[in-house]
Amino acid sequence: MKNELNAELISVGTELLLGQIVNTNAQWLSEELANMGINVFYHGVVGDNENRLYQTFKQAHERSDLVIVTGGLGPTDDDVTREVASTILNAPIYEDEEALKEIQDYYDANNQIMTPNNRKQARLLDGAELLYNSVGMAPGFVLHKENTTWMFLPGVPREMKAIMEEHGFPFIQEKLVPEHTIVSHTLKFIGIGESQLEHDLHDLIQNQSNPTIAPLAGDGENALRLTAKASSNEEAKAIIQDTEDEILSRVGEYCYGRDHDTIQDKVFQLLKENNEVVASAESLTGGKFVDNLISLKGASSICNGAIVCYSPVVKQQVLEVPSLVLDEHGSVSEACALTLAVNVTNKLQSTIGISFTGVAGPEPLEGHEAGTVYIGVYKDQQQPFCKKYHFNGDREMIRQRSVKKGFELLYHLLKK
């Protein structure tokens, strides 16, 4: 068993190269493998072409300890993953009776007739171990040849994830991962840019060994994944804790959570702890902020609602923004954002109001370039405040970043 396990991911499908679907499989697998302490050194995408598949598989076999292939296991003629793998690995193909029964049972359970070409999905490589598919038809399988372990999975994300969680990861953990314990967790930051975060922690990142520190950039936030190797869980956690303490002593004011925490979760928690109720007035965001918040269970206790005020008429007639404000400052302005935040708080009987107004683009509005955004915040009995931002990107990116920034402002307001 090697001290380090180096993995490679290969996604098969011409539709990926054409951009018809997004390769979410590789992203998900990379994250999960990293959390297991497995190095993912290569990602590959190759179309349904035997010659190109052969060259891709051959190279992977020569350089990687673990190769995970998704896609190309279906019933049609262009699904040639197993055929190419058979040649590379010198493993004959056979029809597995157990796999065939699983496929037949799937059709029977759904009152459908199995067409003959679906028998192809029951074909495995000689010496392979079957990985059952509990949510679909095509099973996966795993085969060790020479110094490389190959894992073949269907390309449908839902099926691939189910197979990996139920069988693939346990197989890797039991038979491939080095005997030392690997512990990994993530610190999440908001309100500090990627370059500033790395600058403040430059010496720690440069001198990392155990634990390793991996910066991860997100949309409007950043993260650090800390991974330690030790002889026990307790020892690994202690190693991580020492480094985490040093990180937080420098940039802890920007750290809002760990691992699977989201900024929405933290704002929800703080609202509940402080007995606050929020309402939103949303122009360019069109209700996206409140949609993110009320997707959380129990949101009715901390959110009274929202008013989507996309047009000046609604701003004026429903949220009572004075015509003087709109005439002198415009709907894209600090004055408008402040008025919206205060008035929505009062109208929806809340203790905190937040407003979003700006230009999502692509054209300028009221003399403001696309990406100009004003976010107003009002907490009952306190002075309202407004922040101006300029976000890059298309309409959707600008709107999403505005929502994320709104949660950031509420987080820092509530945690004081």
From TrEMBL:
Pfam families: CinA (PF02464), CinA_KH (PF18146), MoCF_biosynth (PF00994). Residues 8-175 form the MoaB/Mog domain. It comes from the Bacteria. InterPro entries: CinA, CinA-like_C, CinA_C, CinA_KH, Competence-induced_CinA, MoaB/Mog-like_dom_sf, MoaB/Mog_dom. Belongs to the CinA family. NCBIfam families: cinA_nterm, molyb_syn, PncC_domain, PRK00549.1. This is Putative competence-damage inducible protein.
